[in-house]
């Protein structure tokens, strides 16, 4: 089965840059999506199609995807960005797969 | 504004059945792919089932043969019939919509979840 691997935790100081990686076999050949989930809330889409931001998502969130690794970057991290982040991908053979999740502590 | 409201969760014994519902507003579910995603306590999300345009369905291997996704266009609602429930099915079940797919576009770029409900908790325990 296909797996997406994320670091369990990332710690960042306010105003600094947080980098969250998501690794999977030939992930760069698929689209990657990112979700933010705060305690007791539903996941919220923050990046789609590798690098696009949905309406209402701050510009400090950005994404990239190449080779075997997709990356979510939070520039100028704020306290409100403290949450769990999950990557997700799809293709017809594996269907929908979520990453293991990364807890971002600010 | 898109809203998804789940209902039907609860405590059920192993081997039992439960039917979840998702009431949608702000869009027509027959125009979108729709899905169920679950999240066990302390774990990440796990995709469960998807209903594509035209009525084609797909289920995760972990629920195949036990769960069935369907929709009621007249009520603009999505359902998940869950049979032969097991302890490992215990989770919050989210209803999620996928973005509208342009006619004839079979690419992979549309396979993500752009709106989520608040979820309904299913607990399978004796």
Keywords:
heterodimer, A: 106 residues, mainly beta, three-stranded antiparallel beta sheet, B: mainly beta, seven-stranded mixed beta sheet, four-stranded antiparallel beta sheet
In terms of topology, how is this protein built?
The complex is a heterodimer of chains A (106) and B (126).
Chain A: E1 9-11, E2 18-23, E3 32-37, E4 44-47, E5 61-66, E6 69-74, E7 83-91, E8 95-98, E9 102-105
Parallel strand pairs in A: 1-9
Antiparallel strand pairs in A: 2-6, 3-4, 3-7, 5-6, 7-8, 7-9
Chain B: E1 3-7, E2 10-12, E3 18-25, E4 34-39, E5 45-51, E6 57-59, E7 67-72, E8 77-82, E9 91-97, E10 115-116, E11 120-124
Parallel strand pairs in B: 2-11
Antiparallel strand pairs in B: 1-3, 3-8, 4-5, 4-9, 5-6, 7-8, 9-10, 9-11
Short description:
The complex is a heterodimer of chains A (106) and B (126). Chain A is mostly beta strands.
Characterise this structure.
The complex is a heterodimer of chains A (106) and B (126). Chain A has 106 residues and is mostly beta strands. Chain A contains no helices and 9 strands. With 126 residues, chain B is mainly β. Helices cover 0% and strands 46% of the residues of chain B. Chain B has strands at 3-7, 10-12, 18-25, 34-39, 45-51, 57-59, 67-72, 77-82, 91-97, 115-116, 120-124. In chain B, a hairpin with a 5-residue loop joins strand 5 and strand 6 (57-59). Chain B is globular and about 45 Å long. The N and C termini of chain B lie far apart (40 Å).
């Amino acid at each position: 089965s296909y797996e997406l691997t994320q670091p369990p935790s990332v710690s960042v100081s306010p105003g600094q840059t947080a980098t969250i990686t998501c690794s999977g076999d030939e992930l760069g050949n698929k689209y990657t999506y990112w979700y933010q989930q705060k305690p007791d809330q539903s996941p919220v889409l923050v990046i789609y199609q590798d690098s696009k931001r949905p309406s209402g998502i701050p510009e400090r969130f950005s994404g990239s995807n190449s080779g075997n690794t997709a990356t979510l970057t939070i520039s100028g991290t704020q306290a409100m960005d403290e949450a769990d982040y999950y990557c997700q991908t799809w293709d017809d053979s594996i269907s929908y797969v979520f990453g293991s999740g990364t807890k971002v502590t600010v | 504004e898109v809203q998804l409201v789940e209902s039907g969760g609860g405590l059920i014994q192993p081997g039992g059945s439960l039917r979840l519902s998702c009431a949608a507003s702000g869009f027509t579910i027959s125009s979108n792919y729709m899905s169920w995603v679950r999240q066990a306590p302390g774990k990440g999300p796990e995709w469960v089932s998807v209903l594509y345009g035209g009525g084609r369905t797909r289920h995760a291997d972990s629920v195949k043969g036990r769960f069935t996704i369907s929709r009621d266009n007249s009520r603009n609602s999505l359902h998940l019939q869950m049979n032969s429930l097991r302890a490992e099915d215990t989770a919050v079940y989210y209803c999620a919509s996928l973005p509208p797919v342009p006619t004839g576009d079979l690419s992979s770029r549309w396979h993500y979840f752009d709106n989520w409900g608040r979820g309904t908790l299913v607990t399978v325990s004796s």
